[in-house]
Structure prediction request, 330 residues.
Amino acid sequence: MATMKDVARLAGVSTSTVSHVINKDRFVSDAIRVRVEDAVRTLNYAPSALARSLKLNQTRTIGMLITASSNPFYSELVRGVERSCFERGYSLVLCNTEGDEQRMNRNLETLLQKRVDGLLLLCTETHQPSPAIMTRYPAIPTVMMDWSPFDGDSDVIQDNSLLGGDIATRHLIEKGFTRIACVTGPLDKTPARLRLEGYRAAMQRAGLAVPEGYEVIGDFEFGGGLRAMQSLLALPEPPQAVFMGNDAMAVGAYQALYQAGLRIPQNIALVGYDDIELARYMTPPLTTIHQPKDELGELAIDVLIHRMAQPELQQQRLQLTPVLMERGSA
Prediction:
């Protein structure tokens, strides 16, 4: 494999001149630049990213740790993060935990060993990154996305799930429904708890009762939504409308209603949460709370890059405002 010294020897210049031509960081005459570029092509030379990172003390890479899920929200969020990294000249190293705490910590250590310049964390609150691993390596700028699993200096960017749950429920109330149920996610997840609290607040404000069985704990997955809707339909008095804690569960609820021969919204109205791409293509299109995934990804990268440049800044906690996307399901 050719080295920079080989290129310099063939071009008849110094290695520093070769470096300036490759990195375009200093003026080099056209004649010398052409000689260097010809030598690079002749030797099929490829610059060493490792050598460059050691010299500059940066790798131009960002690590992201994410919980595995069939929920399309995560894949859409990652897509926005990767696009934002690319536009800013960074590469994204993505590690999927598959919901396994041991694997999460192993992946975390791998990212730290690779000396990524910054870290994005989007895991579950029941699986917290190991403090022992975090303290074993130099402090690294970190942004928690959507929630923060532990206290610290990391910046946090999250959706206002309390307000989102309130908006979704209030929409159903304004449509004239009085028997409104809520299918939430696992209550060990902050967004699930807050969306449930938003539902309860809107119901209480409207003076509406929440009958027994109208609050169902789901799992934020397709199958969980199907099972939750089946349990609601089995009640002596099923609800007229349901706030689903996320769109993935709403997809499952659509299937349960289809199997029961019921129509949306004629028999039961639904509101979801996340506004995944699939939501607008469902039949009928799903009314849902929009989470600005592209904005979340872009903001996370910008905050992280800002933190990398100025690590002494105080912790930031930013909240994005949810918006109702009214479609055909409610």
